[in-house]
Amino acid sequence: MEKIRKELCKYGKLILEKNLAAGPGGNISAREGDFVYLSPSGFSLDEILPEQWVKIHLKTGKQYGELKPTCEISMHLGCYIERPDIRAVIHTHPPITLGLVSAGITLKPFYPDFVAILGSEIPLVDYVVPAGEEIRQAVVEQVRKHNVVLLKNHGAVSVGETLREAFTRAWMTEETAKMQATGMALGKIRYFTKKEIKEIENLKAEDYRKMLLKKMK
Ligand SMILES: [Zn+2]
Question: Which range marks the domain in which residue 205 is found?
Answer without folding.
Answer: 3-215
